[in-house]
Please model this.
Amino acid sequence: MITVKNEEIELLKELKNELIKTRRMIFFIHCQNYYDKYGIYPDALYEVDPEELKKVGINLDTDKDIYNYQKESRK
Model:
């Protein structure tokens, strides 16, 4: 039987959280690169919680390009 110390469990939880943050940041960098190239954000961006986007400087409410894109895509 394998025994795991509480410290190891905490380290694994911390590592998992860091991995999630890293993956999220890579996604946002990809979205920003897409925007820089095509002038609009990819559709996948709209599946992300707007509060998470604000944490990385993307505000769907005030960015006119994003707002117009969303408005057009709803038609």
Observations:
- The helical segments are 6-38, 50-55, 64-73.
- The chain has a mean pLDDT of 77.
- Residues 6-38 form the longest helix (33 residues).
- DSSP finds three helices and no strands in the chain.
